[in-house]
Design goal:
Keywords (chain A): Oxidoreductase, Pyruvate, Thiamine pyrophosphate
Number of strands of chain A: 8
Number of domains of chain A: 1
Helix content of chain A: 40-55%
Largest sheet of chain B: 7 strands, mixed
Structural class of chain B: alpha/beta
Strand order of the largest sheet of chain B: 11-10-12-13-15-14-20
GO molecular function, one term (chain A): pyruvate dehydrogenase (acetyl-transferring) activity
Oligomer: heterodimer
Distance between the termini of chain A: 44 Å
Protein name (chain A): Pyruvate dehydrogenase E1 component subunit alpha
Strand content of chain A: 5-15%
Order of helices and strands of chain A: HHEHHEHEHEEEHEHEHHH
Shape of chain B: elongated
Number of strands of chain B: 22
CATH class of chain A: Alpha Beta
Radius of gyration of chain A: 19 Å
Structural class of chain A: alpha/beta
Largest sheet of chain A: 6 strands, parallel
CATH architecture of chain A: 3-Layer(aba) Sandwich
Shape of chain A: globular
EC number (chain A): 1.2.4.1
Helix content of chain B: 25-40%
Number of helices of chain B: 13
Number of domains of chain B: 3
Strand content of chain B: 15-25%
CATH superfamily of the largest domain in chain B: Thiamin diphosphate (ThDP)-binding fold, Pyr/PP domains
Catalytic activity (chain A): N(6)-[(R)-lipoyl]-L-lysyl-[protein] + pyruvate + H(+) = N(6)-[(R)-S(8)-acetyldihydrolipoyl]-L-lysyl-[protein] + CO2
Strand order of the largest sheet of chain A: 2-1-3-4-8-7
CATH topology of the largest domain in chain B: Rossmann fold
Chain lengths: 329, 459
């Protein structure tokens, strides 16, 4: 238990690799576009970009089955795209328009899709952790074999409700995978300045929850770990912890002065560990794709993202009557 | 094609900023993600990254420029080898900003607060058919029966909380439920209100209908974020896709001699939150009928009980399935001289006062609101239009109380009918003391209600 496993490279087809490449690239390009629209004043309020962390959700989504659930914090655009939600609907929610997933009433931090089993988008740090365990509670109650991926950050890992939840999840053997996306900064506070023991995955030991550390810049390592976690949960053995080490290139939100880390640190990560570049090289060296093929993919992704931006700009503002709807079922 | 690089908004409030420094010069090639400039916002100096790749064709705003409005073109990005001299440098207004919401005088959905107040149309239908056989039950038994009946009817309903199962309920409200429904549906939780409230909200998102028992609502303070931010708001934030069909229930308000941390009435707190429903029954029949409605309701319901009331007996209709709707007050006693409005244990003082006032020849109409969200305003307004006087009674703190809110509503809708200012009888504006004499002074009393009625009736 709690052993740090070496990321063994599983056999992976060119087709699968290409899919991960596409999925990660879609998130990156989407987020870049969101940043641009924010700069233009088309997106308001808080907007937390996922750039740099793409391999985490794409790797874990590769380990899911239809019907599995996911829930996360406010840095949620990547999770939504990775689970198959429509880029148009996500972008239009960012611009607060009628065509958004929440009809423009939720915004960047509060989006949901019943159809894709995506349960938010939660704005209070750590609040999604018991909620995710609750989704798993419902699945266990219904005995339907589903698992729930409950994502939270290294910052949220210091919230008390996380440990209240670990206790009950272990006590009741809930089929929940706690995914700690450790991007090393809780807003602007480096992990070493906020977290007494650095290996967060070990915090499950006190509750008897197995955990492991995963290289979150390596989509295959993430998928591999995700499959182990899913297997554990589906076998009825209770919760599992994955601490996925990742890195956020952009600020905490759009209004981040970036004074808490050096530009060189970010640059080094981008150059040496980029998860998309990593897969790109694998595709090329493994002769799964040519430069031409990749260019075509880039073009295809850009078209999806541009279309989503157009949709998000053209979709009308919500009708004023929407102010008074959806308060009660 | 050349694209314009626009002055970005780098915070939710930024309208203009200083272009502090260019980190690129004309002719430089940039990749998406490269830092091209430093911009000072109202909050900080921020790095500005390129979104697209290309060559910096032309810098339009020199470094050091202050007060550069958001969306001003600050540079032109060209594709390799492209001539940018002819590109129009003005920002494209159609692209630049979100359309302003059109001012509309048809904001029809907004509640009409001014102009002509709506005439009240109270629902005066009886709660159960005339001639229904009755039985005597305590509030405690009525609550248990309500849960048991609903759990029999719907397998997705379950109960969780501290000591609800093997202990049979800290106040014996869940007595017998474990035996009937088993440990899958009657679940003892650890003492961890924030956590188990959150798990229950998550379970409700996942299709179950949880009943969460708080040993007292004082402890629900640990869980208030999950109740308000997760349970109450998700339906709205998801555009109607998912909500929290669940009940949070337990004793609320002062018990007896348990001091400040265990003696608070949260009625006004929860009643303030759109997305929640709030019930606070007084009688056993209302406790049963409202709890059954609450469990069936597709929204999160706060169900405020009272420890002192658990052992009180009332007549309850002996029907297989009877419910009380939310938003329908009950007139306990008709009268002509003054309207006394209360709810929960406050009804005890209201009814006692009315009894004594009758001896003095003052005829009081006594209304039990039963639910605080929605509130049955119409029954209150119709009564005040008849009696022209009103006193409200509750145990909670006086500032921002339910009585305050009712006073404002009466003023808006029945100002011309009032012959005296509305008086709010409430708990005192102090933390609950322990000493017996001080505790008595801190709570609202029957004598205070009588004095208030005499004041508004000028007796």
């Amino acid at each position: 238990m709690a052993a740090k496993r070496a990321a063994k490279k599983p056999n992976v087809s060119g087709e699968e690799l290409t899919q991960y490449y596409k999925d990660m690239l879609l998130i990156r390009r989407f987020e870049e576009k969101a940043g641009q629209l924010y700069g233009m004043g088309l997106i308001g309020g808080f907007c937390h970009l996922y750039i740099g962390q793409e391999a985490v959700v794409v790797g874990l989504e590769a380990a899911t089955e239809e019907g599995d659930k996911r829930i996360t914090s406010y840095r949620d655009h990547g999770h939504m795209l990775a689970c198959g939600m429509d880029a148009n609907g996500v972008m239009a929610e960012l611009t607060g328009r009628e065509g958004g997933y929440s009809k423009g009433k939720g915004g960047s931090m509060h989006m949901f899709s019943k159809e894709k089993h995506f349960y938010g988008g939660h704005g209070i740090v750590g609040a999604q952790v018991p909620l995710g365990a609750g989704l798993a509670f419902a699945d266990k109650y219904k005995d339907n074999g589903r698992v729930t991926f409950t994502y939270f950050g290294d910052g949220a890992a210091n919230q008390g409700q996380v440990y209240e939840t670990f206790n009950m999840a272990a006590l009741w053997d809930l089929p929940v995978i706690f995914v700690i996306e450790n991007n090393q900064y809780a807003m602007g506070t480096a992990q070493a300045r906020s977290t007494s023991s650095q290996d967060i995955y070990k915090r499950g030991e006190a509750f008897g929850i197995p955990g492991e550390m995963v290289d979150g810049m390596d989509v295959l390592a993430v998928k591999d770990a995700g499959e182990r976690a899913v297997k554990h949960c589906r076998a009825g053995k209770g919760p599992y912890i994955l601490e996925v080490k990742t890195y956020r290139y952009r600020g905490h939100s759009m209004s981040d002065p970036a004074k808490y880390r050096t530009r060189e640190e970010v640059q080094k990560m981008r150059e040496e560990r980029d998860p998309i570049e990593n897969v790109r090289q694998m595709l090329l060296t493994g002769k799964h794709a040519s430069e031409e093929d990749l260019k075509a993919i880039d073009k295809e992704i850009k078209a999806i993202v541009n279309a989503s931006a157009d949709f998000a700009k053209e979709s009308p503002l919500p009708d004023e009557a929407e102010l008074w709807t959806d308060i009660y079922a | 094609m050349a694209t314009k690089i626009l002055m970005p908004a780098l915070s939710p409030t930024m309208e203009e900023g200083t272009l502090a420094k260019w980190l690129v010069k004309e002719g430089d090639t940039v990749q998406s993600g490269d830092i091209i400039a430093e911009i000072e916002t109202d909050k900080a100096t921020m790095e500005f990254e390129a979104v697209d790749e290309g060559v910096i064709g032309k810098i339009l705003v020199a470094e050091g420029s202050e007060g550069v409005a958001v969306n001003t073109a600050i540079a032109i990005l060209a594709e390799d080898g492209e001539d940018v001299s002819a590109v129009d440098a003005s920002a494209d207004p159609a692209e630049a900003s979100a359309p302003a919401a059109e001012a509309s005088d048809t904001a029809s959905a907004a509640p009409a607060t001014a102009a002509v107040p709506k005439a009240p149309t109270p629902d005066l239908s009886p709660d159960w058919p005339e001639g229904t056989p009755m039985k005597t039950q305590t509030v405690r038994e009525a609550l248990r029966d309500a849960m048991a009946e609903e759990m029999r009817a719907d397998p997705d309903v379950y109960l969780m909380g501290e000591e609800v199962a093997e202990y049979q309920g800290a106040y014996k409200v869940s007595q017998g439920l474990l035996d009937e429904f088993g440990s899958k549906r009657v679940i003892d939780t650890p003492i961890t209100e924030h956590g188990f409230a959150g798990i229950a909200v998550g379970a409700s998102f996942g299709g179950l209908k949880p009943i969460v028992e708080f040993m007292t609502f004082n402890f629900a303070m640990q869980a208030i974020d999950q109740i308000i931010n997760s349970a109450a708001k998700t339906l709205y934030m998801s555009g109607g896709q998912m909500g929290a069909p669940m009940v949070f229930r337990g004793p609320n308000g002062a018990a007896a001699r348990v001091g400040a941390q265990h003696s608070q009435d949260y009625a006004a707190w929860y009643a303030q939150i759109p997305g929640l429903k709030v019930a606070m029954p007084y009688s056993a029949s209302d406790a049963k009928g409202l709890l059954k409605s609450a469990i069936r309701d597709p929204n999160p319901v706060i169900f405020l009980e009272n420890e002192i009331m658990y052992g009180r007996s009332f007549e309850v209709p002996a029907l297989d399935d009877f419910t009380i709707p939310f938003g329908k007050a009950r007139i306990w006693r008709e009268g002509t001289d003054v309207t006394i409005v209360s709810f929960g244990i406050g009804m005890q003082y209201a009814l006692e006062a009315a009894e004594k006032l009758a001896e003095d020849g003052i005829s009081a109409e006594v209304i039990d609101l039963r639910t605080l969200r929605p509130i049955d305003y119409d029954t209150v307004i119709a009564s005040v239009m008849k009696t022209n006087r009103c006193v409200t009674v509750e145990e909670g703190f006086p500032v921002g109380s339910i009585g305050n809110h009712l006073s404002a509503t009466i003023m808006e809708r029945a100002f011309d009918y009032l012959d005296a200012p509305v008086i709010n009888c409430a708990g005192k504006d102090v933390p609950m003391p322990y000493a017996a004499n001080l505790e008595k002074l801190a709570l609202v009393t029957t004598d205070e209600v009588i004095a208030a009625v005499k004041q508004v009736t000028y007796r």
